[in-house]
Structure formats: C-alpha cells, structure tokens
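Hi everyone,

Forwarding the result from last night's run.
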Amino acid sequence: MNLKVFHKKAWKLIAKYFPVNYIRVCALRAAGYHVGKLVYIGEELHITDELDSDVCSLFIGDRVAIAQRVLLILSSYPNNSKLRNIVKTVFGKIAIENDAWIGAGAIILPNVTIGEQAIVGAGAVVTRSIPTRAIVVGNPARIIRMIEDKPNDGS
C-alpha cells in the first residue's frame, strides 16, 4: 500500500468513527473531499471510492446535514469476479448542494447530485439526481413532494 492510499484510508477511518463532528469534517477534507462550512457529518459515514486515483470526486456544500450510517458510492465494480470482464467499472462523482439533508442509512450511487435544500429520507437509495427542494424516499428514491415557502406569521 503506497503512502497516498494509506493517508486517505486513515483519514476516512477517522471521519467514520471519531465522536466529534468537527474532527470528522476536518478528516474528510484531509482525505481530499470538498466539504463546505457548518456541515454535520453523522458517525459511520462510509465513502466507497478509488483510494489510489482521483477519478472520483465528492462535493459537500455548506450547511449540509448527513445523518449516521450513510453510504456514498463513488466507484463500483465486481472486484475479482469474472463479471469484471463483462460489466464496466463505474467511477463517478457525488455532489450534495447547500442546505441538503441526508437521512440515516441513505445510499447515494455514483454520478448523482442532491439539489440545494433537498431532503433524502432515511434508508432511501438515490440512483439519479434530485432537484432543488425535493423530498425523496424509497428504493429507488422517488419524489414525494416539493418544499414550498410558507410565510412566517410570527407565531
């Protein structure tokens, strides 16, 4: 294992298990991911990507909330299976825009953008991009409604 792979793997482990959010966020940045300001990263965030290359990317915007045990898949292939000769390897990116909220246990697949102020329900499997201010649930994730502004009546 080369030093770059060891470095990224170590920072990802710290980000996954450290009990303080600030340290989890700093560890993700140190691992090479873009993480915005005032972000919350729940414990056991798992990111699957290529450790020894930069073919994948992760962007997390400002004020994003990611609950515990979320899985972000940036790359996927059948490892040593004979299928590897038949099925193409998927390398991709994930972008989670400002103010989005990702519920516990959600899975986000490669080449997906979660729009600004979108909500991904707990346990949802996101297979395609989610528009701004959409609420999605299920497997595969589907829009159940859009968030609309409500006037603040002061109560």
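The longest strand covers residues 142-146.

Cheers,
N.
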